[in-house]
Design brief:
The protein is built from seven helices and 30 strands. The strands form nine sheets. The chain has a six-stranded mixed sheet, with no helix packed on it. The protein is α/β, with parallel strands linked by helices. Helix 1 (5-15) packs parallel to helix 6 and helix 3 runs parallel beside helix 6. It binds adenosine monophosphate (AMP) and magnesium ion. The site of magnesium ion (MG) has 5 residues, from loops.
């Protein structure tokens, strides 16, 4: 059954659930992992009304006017008194707003004369400081389970002092190349042979998706070898096969998976590169049969299989960010397929130039491009200057 690109992605998100357990790691090792617990605020944030400016803490009702400066408060200090009518306290960014004050006037708008300050503009109560608890209340969830821990999430964990965090385990992902013509990439190929570049590219993509790649040996295009490889691959948490899923006489991957009792959710997707793309489960483990052309393997992994690895490790919302950019040249394609075509995105992300590539086996073009333009299946042509969707490499 052939699905559209959107249907295939939706199918993966529906069928590939969380399959990994959890473990606890130190904050310093948490980056890149998926959070498996809800993180509560350990107090109000900010914990005190915090000045957002250098200037003067005042009572808004006193302005405009001249005020008596009764002291100073810096970040890391507390002002012990209170600001009364006609008074001000000099305050620094990050310092607690003194009692009695209800606004901060920026130093740029204040003229200091000895122990007095003249402010010739009015201000609304509440300006230039963050009230206590405005970001989070004590006990509120500041992070939920299922988010990828990046630099901002690490900052949040550090802020609340959560030095050990419960995260999902990384899935081990077996990478199994098939093909009589394929040799290991450290070997010297004969003229009719090709090095196993797919295992190399998939290992990088799996790692980037949060998985632990395990590269298996190359299966030959016969039942015995393919069976042995799939058996070994099923010891991992997920299985990626490359090659052997087209309609050729020696494309055996689907047949062997069926022998293992596999359930297939789809085996064709209306995309290019990568139409013969197989997704299913065998012995409760998710597998993908990725078409072997290097461009097909890379694109089908990135746009469809990646989401399953992300789901396995608990990511709540795997996301495929597509930008839009203006074409520097016209694009035409035959309708019916979502195509991912090698392209160069300008440094400012505004324009996209299609690149000459020679089919989905053109690794040189795949290495040279920095993006793919993404054609809509029901539209035939785009003129120069029109917007088109873009997948960043
Ligand atoms: P297949 O999907 O098995 O029909 O393979 C399609 C094409 O992709 C073949 O002609 C191979 O040249 C190429 N190919 C298959 N597997 C790999 C691999 N592991 N690394 C590099 N190229 C491959
Ligand atoms: Mg093959």
């Amino acid at each position: 059954m052939a699905l559209t690109f959107d249907e295939a992605r939706a199918c993966v998100l529906r069928e590939a659930g969380v399959s990994m357990g959890t473990e606890s790691v130190w904050l310093a090792e948490a980056a890149g992992r998926v959070l498996a617990e809800e993180i509560p605020a350990d107090r109000d944030y900010p914990p005190f009304p915090r000045s957002a400016r250098d200037g003067f803490a005042v009572r808004a009702a006193d302005l405009p006017g001249e005020l008596r400066v009764i002291g100073e408060v810096r970040a890391g200090e507390f002002f012990t008194g209170a600001v009364g009518p006609g008074e001000a306290v000099e305050i620094m960014t990050g310092a607690p707003l003194p009692d009695g004050a209800d606004a901060v006037v920026m130093v740029e708008y204040a003229e200091r004369k000895g122990d007095r300050v003249s402010i010739q503009r009015s201000i609304a109560a509440g300006e230039n400081f963050s009230p206590r608890g405005i970001e989070a209340r004590d006990g509120d969830a500041v992070l939920g389970a299922g988010v990828r821990i990046g630099h901002a999430e690490v900052a949040m964990l550090a802020t609340v002092g959560h030095t050990r965090v419960v995260v999902y385990q990384r899935p081990r992902v077996a990478i199994a190349a098939t093909g009589d013509e394929i040799v290991e990439f450290h070997q010297h190929p004969a003229r009719h042979q090709i090095r196993n570049s797919n295992a190399a590219s998939l290992a990088v993509q799996v790692q980037r998706a949060g998985g632990v790649p395990e590269i298996l040996g190359i299966a030959r295009d016969n039942y015995e070898s393919t069976r042995a490889q799939i058996r070994q691959g099923l010891e991992a948490d997920l299985l990626l096969l490359s090659g052997g899923v087209s309609a050729g006489k020696y494309d055996l991957v689907e047949k062997v998976l069926a022998e293992f009792g596999a359930k297939f959710f789809f085996d064709r997707v209306k995309i290019q590169p990568g139409q013969p793309l197989v997704f299913g489960k065998v012995q409760d483990k998710v597998f993908f049969g990725l078409p072997g052309n290097p461009g097909s393997t890379m694109i089908t992994f990135e746009t469809i299989a990646r989401a399953a690895i992300e789901r396995a490790q608990g990511l709540r919302n795997p996301c495929l960010p597509l930008l839009r950019a203006r074409l520097t040249d016209p694009v035409r394609h035959k309708t019916g397929l979502t195509r991912f075509l090698p392209a160069i995105l300008s440094p400012d992300g505004a324009t996209i130039s299609p690149m000459m590539a020679h089919g989905s086996g053109d690794v040189a073009a795949l290495a040279r491009c920095n993006a793919f333009l993404v054609t809509d299946p029901d539209r035939e042509a785009w003129a120069t200057g029109e917007d088109i969707r873009v997948l960043v490499k």
